Amino acid sequence: MDRTRLHALLARESAEAARRNPRSRAAYARADHLFGRVPMTWMNKTAGAFPRYLAAARGARVTDVDGHQYIDFCLGDTGAMAGHSPAPVTEAVHRRYAELGGATAMLPTEDAEWVGAELTRRFGLARWSFSLTATDANRWAIRLARAVTGRPKILVNSYCYHGSVDESLIVTAPDGTGTPRPGNVGAPCDVTLTSRVAEFNDLAGLERELAHGDVAAVLMEPALTNIGIVLPEPGYLAGVRELTRRHGALLINDETHTFSAGPGGCTAAWELEPDLLTIGKAIGGGIPAGAYGLSAELAERLLARTDLDLVDMGGVGGTLAGNALSVAATRATLAHVLTDEAFARMSALAERFEAGVRAGLDAHGLPWSVSRLGARTEYRFTSPAPRTGTESAAAADPELEDFLHLYLANRGILLTPFHNMALMCPDTTENDVDTHTEVFAAALDELAG
């Protein structure tokens, strides 16, 4: 890679983004009362000097305040995998909030049992409870795992993604021990006091950590996602399940991003058998929603514990969790939008996207790789594809990533700003995918000179 040429192209695209988006630039400059000038500080993780501001979104399209429309492959970093404002969810939310009235009454609705039954059909876990985010679902699953096992520690994979769960912000050091993940903010304690860590695809490392006998649960994504897609090697996930059972640790599958693998995520697609499963983001069709499922045996063990306060102050639950509006949105999403048929079509589009990226890489002989997980595709600046989170993190190239993101955005295409992820929704079209293939190829041509 000619870095001088890359720097020049990046500067050109940055200037073009500033020229094209004066209203977004002005809105950002006026945002003096927001911490970091944005509603949430991670919104500053964007290529260029300022984020584009949202005006409208529908299906697979986003329009910014400067009037530019984009093909959206970001889709809210999975939160809008159902597409933006899908009609069945819009109708369900309107009926619940405007016609029937009431979103937070602290009373259950019959929608909740329908959603629980559908989640059981898809993922196999017998009992379900609700949250507003997958982060909270993970926090509460961790508490339940500690309570039922009597063990203090949680084991995660290096560079996993489980939201802002404190226990997950640990990575492997060069000597194989655990160390705080770089950039962790205000940790309540040294993360090695609460957590153990092993590399994804490393059964020997996992067994070494489980042998200490203090791990309540292994919390993992069946495939790493937020550090680039890292797929499991043959036999790895079966090995994880065998080791957790042998060492008396529970297994929690976090399907928040890996839901892209199919209607029941990786758990159904790969016939996995977790003790708990957590999910969020996409299931609400854009309305905040999350859930965690438990095996029948684990649910019975927990409910039989009279010493646990699962009703009031036990640290599991929230006033807005399971509210009528979120549950209505989730029912509509699962019943009418993210259906089995929709996933089949989305996965085919992601396969087409993958082929387009691969053709571009092959045309220039670039030593990059591209991986796919159902409806989700991602490329990394290394080949072969990374097999661990640490390897994938080492392949990062922020300048190259910013150039590609800006180049695409300036030509009407959005990728996930955190990494090079493209997600398909039910409204994505073959033409959308082919447009990306053409623009991506043009970007590579410019890099090659």
From TrEMBL:
InterPro entries: Aminotrans_3 (IPR005814), PyrdxlP-dep_Trfase (IPR015424), PyrdxlP-dep_Trfase_major (IPR015421), PyrdxlP-dep_Trfase_small (IPR015422)
Keyword Magnesium (UniProt): no
Keyword set, alphabetical order: Pyridoxal phosphate
Pfam families for this protein: Aminotran_3
Cofactor: pyridoxal 5'-phosphate
PANTHER family, per the entry: GLUTAMATE-1-SEMIALDEHYDE 2,1-AMINOMUTASE (PTHR43713), GLUTAMATE-1-SEMIALDEHYDE 2,1-AMINOMUTASE 1, CHLOROPLASTIC-RELATED (PTHR43713:SF3)
Full protein name: Transaminase
Naturally occurring in which organism (per UniProt): Streptomyces tricolor
